[in-house]
């Protein structure tokens, strides 16, 4: 049995497209929230999407914790992660203690929904970096928050003062 087997699993969901300044604000907010709810090193659960998920993974590591990754589809890295962000994605994926695949071959809404469901199923708590706006598809942050709340998973919503999103095409 590993030393961190008994740690509470804390999942993350949140926006992908964040301004550079917001990325710093989110990292600070996540650090404070993980310290508040974890009390020490934590076991994170993430899909390693750009933005929130990768900031979360790095913050968990900075705090001495570890994380599990749920990959939505076999083609996720090449289909979803921007070429300029793949080295960072690969590094974070290599540092995961566990990698789980949903079984989907191709990335898309169905695969993302499956990954979010698996994430919520695995965690005792969810942290959402969310501006409170409804999403436009079944795998949006608001849907994952709703799913967690329906399952009785406590949810912390973080959206630091001054935070903002960038349009999807701006990256």
Automatic annotation (TrEMBL):
Source organism of this protein record: Micromonospora wenchangensis
Protein name: DUF1273 domain-containing protein
Domain of life: Bacteria
SUPFAM superfamilies in alphabetical order: MCP/YpsA-like (SSF102405)
């Amino acid at each position: 049995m590993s030393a961190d087997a008994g740690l509470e699993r804390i999942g993350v969901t949140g926006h992908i497209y964040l301004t550079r300044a917001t990325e710093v604000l989110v990292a600070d907010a996540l650090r404070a929230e993980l310290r508040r709810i974890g009390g020490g090193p934590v076991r994170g659960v993430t899909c390693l999407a750009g933005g929130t998920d990768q900031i979360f993974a790095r913050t968990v590591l900075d705090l001495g914790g570890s994380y599990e990754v749920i990959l939505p589809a076999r083609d996720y890295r090449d289909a979803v992660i921007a070429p300029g962000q793949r080295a960072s994605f690969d590094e974070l994926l290599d540092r995961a203690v566990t990698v789980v695949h949903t079984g989907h071959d191709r990335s898309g809404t169905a695969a993302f929904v499956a990954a979010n469901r698996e994430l919520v199923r695995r965690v005792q708590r969810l942290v959402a970096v969310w501006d409170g706006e409804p999403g436009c598809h079944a795998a949006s942050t608001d849907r994952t928050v709703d799913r967690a709340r329906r399952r009785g998973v406590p949810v912390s919503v973080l959206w630091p003062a001054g935070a903002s999103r960038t349009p999807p095409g701006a990256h």
